[in-house]
Amino acid sequence: MKRTSATWNQEIDARRDALVALRREFHRHPELSFQERRTSEIIAERLHAAKLEVRTGIAGTGVVGILHGDRPGRTVAWRADIDALPLSEKLEAPFTSAAPGVMHACGHDGHAAIAITLFLLWLQSERPQSASDKAEAAIHSGLRNVRWPGRLEIVRQEPLTVIDVGHTPDGIRQALASLMAIHGADGWVLVTGVSSDKKADEIVGALAPAFDTIICTAAHHKGADPQVIAAAARRGNPAANVQVGATMADAVRLSQEMARAERRRLYVAGGLFLAVEYATVAKGGRAEDLKFF
User: Cα separation of 269 and 204, whole Å?
Assistant: First the structure.
């Protein structure tokens, strides 16, 4: 049956979060021309998961996915560039380039993510009962397993504990959007705190509306008064259950106990010192022993 533009738009919208998350994964790990080994492996993995015929090593690092139709006629080809440029990125975001002197500055991260999404749409159109749902699940699984040190980093699996070191309102909003795209929006407890030289209302206000349970604390290094953070959280989300952990050790204990008892997940965000100290204490260390300066 012929697809209408409205139907295609709906199907694209349904994949929007996965597409954005995949594009940010490529952006985080850029590779120069003819060096795109990691990028090619991810593309090939996603196409294999969709049960497509896949050919790798094209011109060194190229990947071709082939979807065979069941009718005679012309072949349609869709090409996407995947290489990055030898430039340094200044953007602060969870998906900022982790490769010094290399960044996706002309959209090839988006090209690759769009091409994979387009294949899924074609596959669903040609084979409605095929493995496209498995392919999309593989995309999310692959993103969840990526280690981004300090940026949406998983520091514990049980309960799932994700930290982010972003400390500006824009960076925090982008990290939150990526968290929801990768892991889903439900079942979270927010652990938050802000450095004493930051504006609590701006940072906590960017986080609080997305969480129904919030634990406020203070980093040992430069942490603002947790009662000030709690007041900002209540202003940002009056309906939330806001609690206070006076020290980082208190916040770790309270949040971990709550997450286990209620089968919830933990997101630790609001400041660099907060995130690093939380991860340290959760692994058995002491915030007081960290040396930042």
Answer: 9
At 81, the amino acid letter reads D
Which residue type, as a one-letter code, is found at position 105?
A: A
Cα distance between residue 49 and residue 60, in whole Å: 22
User: Do the Cβ atoms of 275 and 148 come closer than 8 Å?
Assistant: no
pLDDT tens-place values along the chain, 293 residues long: 455 566 777 877 877 878 888 898 899 899 998 889 889 888 887 787 777 788 888 888 899 988 887 788 888 888 999 999 999 888 877 788 888 899 999 899 999 999 888 887 877 776 655 544 555 554 455 445 544 456 788 889 899 999 988 878 877 887 888 888 778 889 999 999 999 989 999 999 999 999 999 999 999 999 999 999 999 999 999 999 999 999 999 999 999 999 999 999 999 999 989 999 999 999 999 999 987 65
Q: What is the CATH number of domain 5-144?
A: 3.40.630.10
Q: Is 2 helix (H, G, I), strand (E, B) or coil?
A: coil
Q: What are the start-end ranges of the H helices in 127-195?
A: 132-144, 169-183
Numbered ranges of CATH 3.40.630.10 in the chain: 5-144
Q: 153-289: what fold?
A: Protein-Tyrosine Phosphatase; Chain A (3.90.190)
Region(s) of the chain under CATH 3.90.190.20 = 153-289
